[in-house]
Amino acid sequence: MADNDHRPRVAVLFGGRSSEHSVSCVTAAGVIGAIDADAFDVLPIGITKTGVWRVVDDWASMRFDPDNMPEVTDNGTEVVPPVSAKGSPLLHRDAEGTDTELGAVDVFFPLLHGRFGEDGTLQGLFELSDTAFVGSGVFSSAASMDKHFTKSLMAQAGIPTCPWELVTETMWAADRAEAENRVAELGLPVFVKPARAGSSMGVSRVAEAADLEAALLGAFEHDSKVIVEPEVSGREVECAVLGSVYDTQLRVSAPGEIRVSGDHSFYDFDAKYLDLAAAEVTCPADLDETVTARVRELAASVFRLFDCTGLARVDTFVTDTGDVVINELNTLPGFTPTSAYPFMWAQSGLDYSELIGELISIALIDHSRAK
After folding, report:
1. Is residue 241 classed exposed, middle or buried when 0-12, 13-18 and 19+ CB atoms within 10 A define those classes?
2. Is the per-residue pLDDT at 264 higher than 50?
3. pLDDT at 275 over 90
4. Burial of 97 (0-12, 13-18, 19+ CB in 10 A)
5. pLDDT at 93 over 60
6. C-alpha distances in angstroms, 168 versus 212, 329, 333, 359?
7. pTM for this one?
8. Mutual orientation of helices 121-128 and 138-145 as an angle, nearest 10°?
9. Do 111 and 14 form a contact (C-beta atoms < 8 A)?
10. Backbone angles phi, psi at 55, to 5 degrees
11. Residue-wise DSSP of 33-87
12. SS3 content of the chain, % helix, strand, coil (to 5)
C-alpha cells in the first residue's frame, strides 16, 4: 500500500485447518470480489490445512466443484502475523526465508468456518495484537461454536431450545448402555451432530436404534464431543442479525425459511453448497405477524445473550402450533453470495456489498470504543 493511500487495510482470512476449508475459500472469493476497492485496501490471506498463512492472488478462481474443491496450498511462502499490541506490520517470508514488511492491518475479516476460525482461537490472536476484526469475540465465538454449551446457556437463560443429550467418546467407551438409554429417552428419529463442527459436517439422521452406533462413530471422526437431538416437527426458519454489542437497537432481517427436497432428508453439506436446486430459501418466510415477531425477538435475544457483535445467524424451528424453538447460533455464518445470511439481508434491503461494508465499519468502530 502506498504511503499516500489512506484506505483502511482489510486482511481477509480464509481456508484454515477445519473440515470446512473449501467452503471458506469460496466464501472469500465472494466477499473479496464485493468489497469496495475505492474504500478499502484488501489483502487476501489464505491459510493452508496445516495452518500456514500466505498471500493468495488467485482467490477469484475459487468455486465449488465436487471434483476439484478449492484449497489453499503451501507454496513455500508465509505471512507472519504480529502478536504485540504495537501496530506491528505483517511480515512476508519468501521461499528463501527472506522477510519483508507487508504493512500493518487495520481490520481482519475472518471467513474461516469451523475450528481454528470461528471458535475463539483466531479471535484471541486478534485480541493479543489489539487489531480490529469482523465478528464476535473470544467468548461469543467459543460458546456458540460448541452446540452443547450453546444450548446449556440458552436453557439457563430461559430461551426455548431443542432437547439434547451429550455423548462424548469417553462416555461411549465407559458406559455405552447408559448413553444408549439417555438417547432412547429422546425418541426416534434423532439427529447426531458433532458439537463443534459446522456446515452439517458429520451430521446424520438416525431412524433405527441399530444405526446409532454408526452415526456416533461417524460424528466422532469430526469431534470427540457429540450431541443427539430428537427430530423436531416444524419449519426451519432462520434470521440474520447485524449490529454491535454497543448498539441499543439491533438490526434483524426478515426471517427466511429453508425447504429441502430431492434425496436430502435434511439441510446437509451437499444441499447447502453443491446441490443448490435441492434447497430453497424463501425470504420473507410465509409466517403470520405474531410468529415473525417472535422469531426476530428471539434472534436478537440470543445475539445479546452471547455478547455477539457484527453478525450472527440464528436458526429456529417453528412448530405446527406456532411455537419458536432455537436450534443453533452461528457467529460466522456462510457468506457466499448464495448463502442464507446475505440472501436474507438482500431481501431485507441491504445488498451484499453494502452488508460487507457495514460489517467492516462495525469492526472498526467497536475497536475504537473498546480502547
Report:
1. buried
2. no
3. no
4. exposed
5. yes
6. 14, 21, 25, 36
7. 0.90
8. 180
9. yes
10. -70, 135
11. HHS-TTT-EEEEEEE-TT--EEE-S-GGG----TTS-------S-EEE---SSS-
12. 35, 25, 40
